[in-house]
Amino acid sequence: MVLHPIFIFLIFILLAPLGHASTPSDKNSSPFDFLKKLKGSHKGNNTKEIHKLKAYLEQFGYLKYENETHATDDDFDDNLESAIKTYQKNYRIKSSAPVQRAFQTWKNFTHFTFAQVQTNRNSDLLIAFYRGAHGDYESFDAFRPLAHAFAPTNGSFHYNADIRWSIGAVEDYFDLETVALHEIGHLLGLGHSSDDAAIMYPTIYSGVIKNLHEDDIQGIRALYNR
Ligand SMILES: *[C@@H]1O[C@H](CO)[C@@H](O)[C@H](O)[C@H]1NC(C)=O
Ligand SMILES: *[C@@H]1O[C@H](CO)[C@@H](O)[C@H](O)[C@H]1NC(C)=O
Ligand SMILES: *[C@@H]1O[C@H](CO)[C@@H](O)[C@H](O)[C@H]1NC(C)=O
Ligand SMILES: *[C@@H]1O[C@H](CO)[C@@H](O)[C@H](O)[C@H]1NC(C)=O
């Protein structure tokens, strides 16, 4: 079967938006199972269930239809194609590298290895961007929190999509990697530190980069006796 390149790529990033750790155990079915049926769709096609993809992209602000009818139909139109392209640029280029580096940094001080997997079916960790209330313990608003994470077995790490994110120290923007280091600390079981030099200090400021500090390393070593 010939697959449309946009879709191969889209399926990959929707299912594995950033980094997941892999595990042999199996999990429930993915909310993105419907995407599998969209493989092979082209612009101009009418493809069953493509309205779900439209709804997903609209939820994250990538797609806006003036005419509601088009938002809920199954036409693969110009708006949808253009939204997919924007989505790919943002998610692929902006966020996966800093998150992968943050996992590498933590890996240095634990016995864990982390690998990104193609689907979230059998991953321990799932990382994604959300906006507002998104069905878990804590809603996001336009300013806070920057992100949150729940240790396994939950394993979710959510960035707040309304925050201004950067790669590196940019005034008024928050560094993706610094926040990833903090949230991965939570994923690994660490709580907050009262040492303001530690990555696990509860507050992270815009415009700055932070790395692991001796306090964080002692914390993770104490936790895993390593
Ligand atoms: C989708 O559109 C392409 C190009 O117009 C066409 O070749 C293909 O048969 C269509 N597929 C379906 C499932 O309609
Ligand atoms: C919305 O699109 C549908 C289908 O193309 C069309 O029949 C309808 O008139 C449009 N509505 C408006 C308000 O433009
Ligand atoms: C991991 O540790 C090695 C050895 O200390 C170091 O050279 C490397 O820079 C570290 N990598 C990260 C991503 O911290
Ligand atoms: C994590 O918890 C949230 C509820 O706050 C839930 O929506 C989500 O499905 C959970 N994820 C896993 C992998 O258990």
UniProtKB/TrEMBL annotation:
Ca(2+) 3 binds at residue 141. GO terms for biological process: collagen catabolic process; extracellular matrix organization; proteolysis. Can bind about 5 Ca(2+) ions per subunit. Residues 1-21 form the signal peptide. The active site is at residue 183. PANTHER family: MATRIX METALLOPROTEINASE, METALLOENDOPROTEINASE 2-MMP-LIKE. Residues 83-226 form the Peptidase metallopeptidase domain. It comes from Salvia splendens (Scarlet sage). This is Peptidase metallopeptidase domain-containing protein. GO terms for cellular component: extracellular matrix. SUPFAM superfamilies: Metalloproteases ('zincins'), catalytic domain, PGBD-like. One of its GO terms (molecular function) is metalloendopeptidase activity. Zn(2+) 2 binds at residues 182, 186, 192, 200. It holds the Pfam family Peptidase_M10. Ca(2+) 2 binds at residue 124. Zn(2+) 1 binds at residues 134, 136, 148, 158.
